[in-house]
Write a structure and sequence with these properties.
Length: 159
């Protein structure tokens, strides 16, 4: 009898906890960006559309080139994550719109996740000149450093 009561009590407590744990493992999806290929092909005409036309029809680009020919990038993506793990990129599209010197669209190209390239980030740090203080220097560094009246320029001459 006592054993059955313990099992029932355990299930009353563990049941909701297990449900919460299972709910935490639901896949979370996130859609970013707003441009789709059909909108690009209908809205942007190579050789005719200007920068203002593209901005009016598609909005501000996600990114712009900083050198070379003026290029606007419209980026959209779909990611999925389970619980607290790093999200995985499921789908990604980049629409590249290039402009000529006159500000007219010269090329439109669709890029997908397959066109992307993996690269390793450089983990070097730039060395800096100077002195690195140890823990004892940080703790004891200010002992004896205080403003004396003579140093502060408020010497009392009333004596």
């Amino acid at each position: 009898m006592f054993k059955n009561q313990m099992i029932k009590s355990f299930l009353r407590v563990a049941g909701p906890c297990l449900l919460l744990a299972a709910a935490a493992c639901v896949t979370k999806t996130n859609q970013t960006g707003y441009v789709k290929e059909a909108e690009i092909t209908e809205a942007v005409i190579i050789g005719q559309s200007s920068r203002d036309d593209v901005r009016e029809k598609l909005g501000s680009p996600s990114s712009q080139s900083t050198f070379g020919t003026e290029t606007w990038y419209y980026i959209s993506g779909h990611t999925e994550a389970v619980a607290f793990f790093t999200p995985d990129i499921v789908e990604q599209e980049v629409i590249r719109v290039e402009f000529n010197d006159s500000g007219i669209v010269s090329d439109v190209k669709k890029l997908s996740k397959k066109d992307g390239k993996e690269f390793d980030l450089v983990k070097r740090t730039t060395p800096t000149e100077g002195h690195s203080m140890g823990i004892m220097e940080q703790l004891l560094g200010n002992i004896g450093r205080f403003n004396r009246q003579e140093e502060a320029g408020t010497l009392d001459t009333r004596r």
